Amino acid sequence: MARVPLRGRISFRDYAALILGFSFLALEACLHIIIVFLPKSVIDWFYRRSRSLFHRIAKQPKHRSEEKRASDNVLNARDFGELCALYGYTHEEHVVLTKDGYLLGLHRLPSKMGQRSGNPGGSTGKPVVYLHHGLLMNSEVWVCITDASRALPFVLVEQGYDVWLGNNRGNKYSKKSIHHGPNSSKFWDFSIDDFAWHDIPDSINHILDVTKADKLSYVGFSQGTAQAFAALSIHPRLNEKVNVFIALAPAMSPPGLAAPIVDGLMKASPTLLFLFFGRKSILSSATMWQSIMYPPIFARMIDRSLIWLFDWHSNNITMDQKIAAYAHLYSFASVKSVVHWFQIMRNAAFQMYDDDVLSPVVRTSVSSYRPARFPTRNIITPIVLLYGDSDSLVHIETMLAQLPDHTIAKPLHTYEHLDILWGKDVDKDVIPEVLQSLQYYCSNGEDRSAKNNVKPTGLVVKE
């Protein structure tokens, strides 16, 4: 009798979704090939027609607002350096060689607006803050803001911090290895494990070597928080180098996606993603669609996708900010790292990558195998969580149960996931909380752990 793949684990409705998904990917691949060979004049014609149609339907205002002008400037900036230059900041570029051979790009903002560092590439004597982005992102997401007062890195620089921004292996600024080229599947054979074992600790060590500082403060967003949770839990000595870990929209073991078909299908068999996207980078055609679509149309497409997948309506982010930021949202990531997230969701545990997922599973009362979990309760570094109370990916009670007792949590009312980066009121709701925590734990280099137990106001301590 012929075997039906995954029989008993997914329904016939899920099989229909699987077939539909493969059909869509095949159609998209064909369109991608056609567009590659189309003359630029034809692509430009379609772009102009879509722009004309959009303005006719949307009835755009005749006079551009200040935010609209800023949005256009951010939209057209090509990289991190140009985004910083829009607001008068001069950045430095650094490269880190990880122990397993990946070259990671680091960006640094050592001096205030309109100033240049007197000692480029060296120590500034200032307290150091390291920011790390989320999944499918790069360092640009921190600075693609229509108002400098809402960009956390710029505010930190003006407050006297030496600001560094990291990048994961494989993304726009880290697409090189001394062992494999980016066209090789071996280059993309990495998951959250590799970020934790190498990218985060190696980046932190490089920053401390350059700045001659004893410790730094870590601010992560989304997957950037998961990477720090994992790294601090498996590198005990790394805890001695981080005076506070501030987790924005923290991610550890999210409950799942809002789209039931996708959620059920991927949890049933996470490795189906390898069948959909191969074993290299995921959604690699996103940059192609972005280049040929009129930006407001692209922004609305992203909005619809976020609503469908995560139930994020992003009402706290203005449309001008979306148009500006979504152009810098996507960066390359491995399919394996996304598979890892679905393994975590399926098992409701913050675990290491499960290499044994394709082996047959015998269901008994006592399991004979369990993937190793990141021992996050062993983290010594002070932890501050800032999370949106409307974020579908954050289940705060589950997260706190996996973290040490000194963890502090602060809900942000009506905030979703991306709102914490680009919301219209982050300068009032998010950035002051970050500054308050930094001042408490690392002001003037003092060791707050030896002082009294008074916590920053407005923060809720884990019971």
From TrEMBL:
Cited InterPro entries: AB_hydrolase_fold, AB_hydrolase_lipase
GO BP of this protein: lipid catabolic process
Subcellular location: Membrane
Stretches assigned to the Partial AB-hydrolase lipase domain: 82-144
TM regions (residue ranges): 15-38
GO molecular function: hydrolase activity
One term under GO cellular component: membrane
Entry superkingdom: Eukaryota
Topology within the bilayer: Single-pass membrane protein
Chief localisation class: membrane
Record keywords, A-Z: Hydrolase, Lipid degradation, Lipid metabolism, Membrane, Transmembrane, Transmembrane helix
Record flagged with keyword Protease: no
Protein name in the entry: Partial AB-hydrolase lipase domain-containing protein
